Amino acid sequence: MCGICGWVDFERDLRQEQAVAQAMTDTMACRGPDDEGVWLAPHAAIGHRRLAVIDIEGGRQPMIADEDGQPIAVLTYSGEIYNFVELRAELTARGHRFRTQSDTEVLLRAYLEWGEGFAERLNGMFAFAIWDTRREELLLVRDRMGIKPLYYHPLPNGVLFGSEPKAILANPLIGPPTVDADGLRELIAFVKTPERAVYQGMYEVRPGHTVRVTREFLCRRPYWRLESHEHTDDLTTTVGTVRELLDDIVTRQLISDVPLCTLLSGGLDSSTITALAARGLEGLGAGKVRSFSVDFTGYSENFTPDEMRDTPDTPYVHDVVRHIGADHTDIVLDSADLMEPAVRAGVLRARDLPIGIGDMDTSLYLLFRAIRGHSTVALSGESADEVFGGYRWFFDPEAVSADTFPWLVAPGFGRFAGVGALLDDDIARKLDIPGYRADSYRQALDEVPRLPGEEGLERRMREISYLHLTRFVQILLDRKDRMSMAHGLEVRVPFCDHRLVEYVFNAPWAMKTFDGREKSLLRAAAADLLPPSVLGRRKSPYPSTQDPSYEEAVRAEVVRLLDGGDVAAAPLIDPDKVRAVLDRPEADGGPTGSRASLEGLLQFNAWLERYRVRVNI
């Protein structure tokens, strides 16, 4: 995992722009603390910050392929290719010779052999750029599920790109960052519209797509998309196939030349990954799996059930640890940790945007900071809910039948409004968030691949699965990437393997819920791996602190902000709405209610100030 960036300009000699290229590259230092490199050519400047995971000595970047002593292609790459061993063997048989043991060189050679179509052969998580010196063309590629981020900003004579917006914003051609009405809508709506990157003029490479930039044009092309196929396997075969896929996926993702661990929440998803990793490491003679979880001081002892969480995580975490014999560490946080100004500033810096979910972002940031002191790679259970149908709103009739994204009306989660609940009425009318959500929803529905004759609940659940696999999961993957890479920690997500996603997407909903519960296929596939308590546990999302002192601290900071008089968000926010929220009882709605609005206001205001954002609506 690394940080990448670059600048292509067909009318400028970029060999004179070393300082700017270096400044762009320096913004990626958090993603790549181990090494750096900048490569310059007349019309291309390519930067790289490296997190060394595989072939520590040989995988330096930008990596150059030579022919007759001249560079023919230059690669800057972030991610992991899990089938690089097979690809290397195939390329060797085709006459390619390798100087390193890295997956980076395999990626570069695969491009030289198969051209742009080589992306279809890759199994992994990746975002990369290849400058072809022969054609003077740039190719940007992002993995199928969008695990790794990749942004770009077209220019009149080229393009800027980077793993994060900060790399692009570091180029003086951009000027002060600007957000227009659609950018604000995207910040507030909680729908994650593909390609939109909030900042005016900036885009994301869409998952499963390439972007090719030449002197004449910029061309976007899909190389993968979810497709619908008739599922002909019976239940027993389906459960067995899911298990076989998971065995292979986790085994591949254990490959690392640096310390590796798992994230363990005590839920079905992370527990399954941890148990499979434990077996895989044992088979490799690599000792016990190391695992980490997050907890809050006094959380288990004083836990109160809410609409989204029935139980605290820690008792289940410890059940799994005992069952599989993991080497485990609980990372215990308190409210002072969550309110630490430097930590909250770090969260905003990691995101480049005020799109977090309050203390859940801050605690994840602190969890990853603690883990990085022990491991460089972590396996996570992220995306199992999207793949197997695990969220509670999948089973809520109102959410399922709603003419919008289900999470927007789900009990508990549907109340989440963030700073949008505090907008000035005129601004709110101008933005028309309900209309923006409706347009985004219709666009998403139009993309859904359907089976002929599929009707009723099966048709609707295919739609809901698609919405989650292409929209909702992006919110969570972005969050996990930024919070982990802020500390140079690589997080791998086995449930995002495209083979598993494709297979389970086409399993009928009746099969995905054959035992009357959520994630039936995964539970059956992992039945021999986990303790009964975890197999029987109901879905519980990432924890949020229930300590009253945290909300008290948030409220006090908002009061100080209002009393200070110089509020960057003032032109957009209705102070009476803020005071009305402050007048409500504490814990009114908890982390997805009024507290979320106040947390959102603090982050939104800090973003406007620190990034000096111009709002143009």
TrEMBL record:
EC supergroup of this enzyme: ligase
According to UniProt, this protein's pathway is:
Amino-acid biosynthesis; L-asparagine biosynthesis; L-asparagine from L-aspartate (L-Gln route): step 1/1
Q: What is its EC number?
A: 6.3.5.4
Query: Glutamine amidotransferase type-2 domain: which residues?
Result: 2-216
Q: Which InterPro entries match?
A: Asn_synth_AEB, Asn_synthase, ASN_synthetase/amidase, AsnB_N, GATase_2_dom, Ntn_hydrolases_N, Rossmann-like_a/b/a_fold
| Family assignment from sequence similarity | Belongs to the asparagine synthetase family.
NCBIfam families reported in the protein's UniProt record: asn_synth_AEB
- Give the SUPFAM superfamilies listed for this entry: Adenine nucleotide alpha hydrolases-like, N-terminal nucleophile aminohydrolases (Ntn hydrolases)
Lineage, broadest ranks:
Bacteria, Bacillati, Actinomycetota, Actinomycetes, Streptosporangiales
* Keyword entries, A-Z: Amino-acid biosynthesis, Asparagine biosynthesis, ATP-binding, Glutamine amidotransferase, Nucleotide-binding
Signal sequence region? none
Provide the catalytic activity annotation: L-aspartate + L-glutamine + ATP + H2O = L-asparagine + L-glutamate + AMP + diphosphate + H(+)
Q: Which Pfam families match?
A: Asn_synthase (PF00733), GATase_7 (PF13537)
* Superkingdom assignment: Bacteria
Q: What is the protein named?
A: asparagine synthase (glutamine-hydrolyzing)
